[in-house]
Amino acid sequence: RSSDLKPSAEDLINSNTVTLTCLVVGFDLIQSTVTWEVDGTFQSTGVKTDQTITQVNGTQSKISQLTIEKEHWRTMTKVGCKVEHTCSLFAVNKREIQKPPGKANKVPSIAMTLPSNEDISGVMTEIPLVCVISSPSEDFTVSWKIGRA
Question: Strand 109-113 vs strand 130-134: parallel, antiparallel, or unpaired?
Fold first, then answer.
């Protein structure tokens, strides 16, 4: 099984590159290989695949990442990771992102709603934070960070 390939919103907004991640989960992954394709072409530049990790329940995981220029991400239409296992009955397990035509060059807009003065000065132990993202496509993920890290 392979995972979602979307870049982070942070990469799309703050970086010149984006990193796509392919998480592979299964058994005997030492015998597997992960390759990347961009618009139908094999991609080896910018690929980093970690060693296989065995979990306590016996399953294994392997992470492969593809880092590409943000402009390349904006103009491409399809990217995917392909997992092949020497002992598998299924020759290839492939996960792809296909961008809708005409939306490849659009970037998301992000708006943050700050807490009200009542929220900050009140006795509440939790303060609501709202992040609104408007995007013509769904080719990113969102993460929150606390502090300056």
Answer: antiparallel
